[in-house]
Amino acid sequence: MAQDTARQPPPTAPAAPARALLPFILPAVVVGVVAALVFVGVSTAAEKLQHVLWGPLPDALGVGRYSVLWMFVMLVATGIAVGLVVWKVPGHAGPDPATLGLDAPVLPPEVLPGLVLAAALMLAGGPSLGPENPVIAVNVGLATWLGTRLLPRTPGTLWPVLAESGTIGALFGTPVAAALVISEALAGKPLRGRLWDNLFAPLAAGACGAMTTSLVARPTFDLGLAPMGRPHAKDLLAALVIAATAALLGLCAVYAFPYVHAAFRRLRHPLLALPTGGVVLGGLAALGGHLTLFKGLSEVGELARNPEGWSAGRFALMAVVKLAALVVAASCGFRGGRIFPAVFIGTSLGLCAHALVPAVHPSLGVAMGVLGMLLAITRQGWVSLFTAAVLVASPAILTLLCVASLPAWLLVTGRPQMQLRPDGTPGR
User: Fold this and answer.
1) Are 153 and 26 in contact (CB under 8 A)?
2) Secondary structure string (H, E, C) spanning the chain
3) How far apart are CA 122 and CA 336, in angstroms?
4) Contact, 378 vs 339, CB < 8 A?
5) Which of 302, 295, 305, 310 lies closest to 343 in space, CA to CA?
6) Beta partners for 130?
7) How far is the C-alpha of 108 from the C-alpha of 230, rounded, in Å?
8) Contact 371, 407 (CB under 8 A)
């Protein structure tokens, strides 16, 4: 009898009945749609401002659009503008961005306008950060504030999860990314019920966010690189080497991050720290060229359209400069996320590997470079695999990605994260 009892499988969590999940559909749909519209609105406004600042304005002044002088002027001016927002606007554009990740805290409503303004100015001005962190924080604050007032009987903990899922679905154009992020976050928490019951409402929000963005903006992550054929042993070796190299390079930035942040923190005022960061970013842009500016998604497409257009040394230089720019921009106080710049860095590293060893397929190099860099920078395993896979749209690479992720993860796990605690010490 004791042996029979020992052989019995552990009891599974009871499944929630459909009637318990149906009330969450409407809130998930509304939050997903609104989160996507906020993301598209902020991104569109920033793109229109970027077009003016980096097009007609320098042309009217008789200055080259991407001349060294104009890059310095714009990055310093962006630092001053964002510094004024952080200093004077109510809420000071939220907490220190170096302490924030994708799991945003619930910010009070008065903070959100300043955070939107600071993020839009940053995106238009050229610092190497993406929109994900501030937009998620805005949507989380907005959904929680409105949701708890309009539907007070709905669990308050649901609104941040729905807002995060809707925003991630909108960012990537697919709810799969949202489901992966939420399932990874749930892995360390005690669950009430089964995993898919807990994912039901977030997945609905992510799907609505993705559909809304697809209908309004039609985003795509596919770089259009030629798909790779049947993998061979040399491809496995290349995958392991490139992913591990990218992870190690990313760890260099992670370890440097708290020291760079501490240096800017000593300036003690946003109107000193942010313009100073702009000066440093201007120097890096002069070294790496205009492709190392901005969040990096459009620039990644430009690299992918001509994988043979730059030398291995040039690809390596752009990767290192972009990584340094990411560390500086995230340290000095600009409001932005790290995923999109990390994608540019990984792509540059992958194309560098192809330029050094032409036998390395460009799709393979890009996927493995992005995988390793994202693992080091974000410490999000599922998102790293997913992003690397959708960039190249090559089914033959999926197995290689899974295999290469294992040694790369061993390199990064247990190391500090590129996210600091409120006291400035590295998190793990």
Assistant:
1) no
2) CHHHHHHCCCCCCCCCCHHHHHHHHHHHHHHHHHHHHHHHHHHHHHHHHHHHHCCHHHHHHCCCCCCHHHHHHHHHHHHHHHHHHHHHCCCCCCCCHHHCCCCCCCCCHHHHHHHHHHHHHHHHHCCCCECHHHHHHHHHHHHHHHHHHHCCCCCCCHHHHHHHHHHHHHHHCCHHHHHHHHHHHHCCCCCCCCHHHHHHHHHHHHHHHHHHHHHHCCCCCCCCCCCCCCCCHHHHHHHHHHHHHHHHHHHHHHHHHHHHHHHHHCCCCHHHHHHHHHHHHHHHHHHHCHHHCCCCHHHHHHHHHCCCCCCHHHHHHHHHHHHHHHHHHHHHCCCCECHHHHHHHHHHHHHHHHHHCCCCCHHHHHHHHHHHHHHHHHCCHHHHHHHHHHHHCCCCHHHHHHHHHHHHHHHHCCCCCCCECCCCCECC
3) 8
4) yes
5) 295
6) 337
7) 52
8) no
pLDDT at 119 over 50: yes
- What is the pLDDT, as a whole number, of residue 428? 64
pLDDT at 5: 47
Across 139-144, average pLDDT: 95
- Percent of the chain, pLDDT > 90? 63
Cβ-proximal residues to 399 (8 Å cutoff; 6+ apart), any chain: 231
Q: Which of these, 401, 396, 397, lies nearest to 372 by C-alpha position?
A: 401
Sign of CA dihedral 319, 321, 323, 305: negative
> Under a CB-based contact definition with an 8 Å cutoff, are residues 308 and 352 in contact?
no
Threshold 0.70, pTM exceeds = yes
Amino acid letter, 263: A
